[in-house]
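Quick review question:
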């Protein structure tokens, strides 16, 4: 077989890339080791930056997003028994974020790809995935399809969109790869609850017992998180214990946290990770295959979408013999990645209780929080980073 671009991984990055390439008349083969049902059920991020929303609209993928997405003009910061609003619209000249779950983005793009290109547009449940000949102009993508047939696809380029644990990044020789990472001494316990949200916008709460976040997934579904130890076992957290802890950390006079059935719960470790460069020969990394950020700044999904917004025109030009954008891809994306990595680290360390922290560190965190809510300059910095910095350029959004 032969195609122009081989894509490994049917998460948001791989799916959007295949669609953006198709809009540019570029053929691709998209493979995924999981089933369609698994991909469409994974609970992940839920906040889209202003630029991500504009990108999905420009790509013709926003029908449900426009109907069901919940636009937020700010967030709440809660600490020392008080809740403060950070107004994104006022601070950034009208920019907002939209709550629309990653699972829904994935469903939307899968449905569109299958409608546009038929049932073979995405090859689910493959095994034995390999990439080879990456330092040549004809890299190979190998896999075994669900029916047991072994395939080798010759490509002009391969996009590794297969996440942190995928096969793409390890295919890069260690001698040409620089990895920078940090593990945090805490994790998030997240729940999806069948209960209307208790807030109109996200609440980020700094509390002596640990961080808490109140998000939402729609008018009847809430998404909430607790800071827990990195070695916690989910079996030690029955539903009522979770609700009791959330109620304690969000407590304010005159405000009540609504409780309801827990539909899903899990514990997620916290890490910052960047692998550079994001290109080796004809292999291009995108999304979690190249970088991981702690979820506090709502950046992971948005970084993945931004990566492929730049990668699609670069690969389209490369397939036509024009390598300039492909040569710039890694540097362009890493600039945004490091900005988002810093912002995510800053939000995380400002809001979480550090195990073993002394009173000096606790007072420094409170001082930083007071500064953010009392200084227009500090609040603007948070708002422009949270809504997406730097903004995606108009040239990227013109498809």
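Suggested answer, residue by residue:
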């Amino acid at each position: 077989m032969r195609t122009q671009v081989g894509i490994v991984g049917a998460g948001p990055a791989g799916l959007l890339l295949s669609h953006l390439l198709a809009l540019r008349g570029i053929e691709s083969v998209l493979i995924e080791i999981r089933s369609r049902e698994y991909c469409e059920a994974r609970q992940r991020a839920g906040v889209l930056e202003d630029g991500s929303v504009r990108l999905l609209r420009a790509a013709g993928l926003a029908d449900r997003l426009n109907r069901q997405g919940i636009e937020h003009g700010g967030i709440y910061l809660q600490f020392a028994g008080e809740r403060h609003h950070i107004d994104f619209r006022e601070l950034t000249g009208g920019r907002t974020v939209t709550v629309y779950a990653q699972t829904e983005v994935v469903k939307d793009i899968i449905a569109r790809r299958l409608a546009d290109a038929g049932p073979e547009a995405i090859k689910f449940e493959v095994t034995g995935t390999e990439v080879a000949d990456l330092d040549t102009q004809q890299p190979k993508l190998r896999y075994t399809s669900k029916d047991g047939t072994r395939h080798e696809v010759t490509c002009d380029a391969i996009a590794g969109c297969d996440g942190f644990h995928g096969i793409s990044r390890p295919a890069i020789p260690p001698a040409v790869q620089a990895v920078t990472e940090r593990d945090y001494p805490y994790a998030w316990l997240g729940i999806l609850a069948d209960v209307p949200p208790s807030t109109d916008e996200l609440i980020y709460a700094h509390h002596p017992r640990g961080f808490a976040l109140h998000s939402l997934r729609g008018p009847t579904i809430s998404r909430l998180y607790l800071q827990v130890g990195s070695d916690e076992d989910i079996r030690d957290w029955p539903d009522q214990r979770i609700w009791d802890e959330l109620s304690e950390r969000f407590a304010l006079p005159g405000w009540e946290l609504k409780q309801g059935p827990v539909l899903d719960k899990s514990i997620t470790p916290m890490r910052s990770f960047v692998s550079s460069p994001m290109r080796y020969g004809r292999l291009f990394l995108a999304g979690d295959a190249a970088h991981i950020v702690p979820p506090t700044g709502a950046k992971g999904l948005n970084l993945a979408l931004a990566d492929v917004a730049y990668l699609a025109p670069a690969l389209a030009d490369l397939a036509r013999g024009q390598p300039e954008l492909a040569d710039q891809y890694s540097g362009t994306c890493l600039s945004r990645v490091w900005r988002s990595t810093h912002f995510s680290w800053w939000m995380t360390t400002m809001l979480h209780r550090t195990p073993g922290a002394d009173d000096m560190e606790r007072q420094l965190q409170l001082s930083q929080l007071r500064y953010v809510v009392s200084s227009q300059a500090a609040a603007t910095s948070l708002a422009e980073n949270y809504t997406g910095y730097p903004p995606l350029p108009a040239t990227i959004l013109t498809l």
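Why it works: The radius of gyration is 21 Å. The first strand starts at residue 5 and ends at 8.
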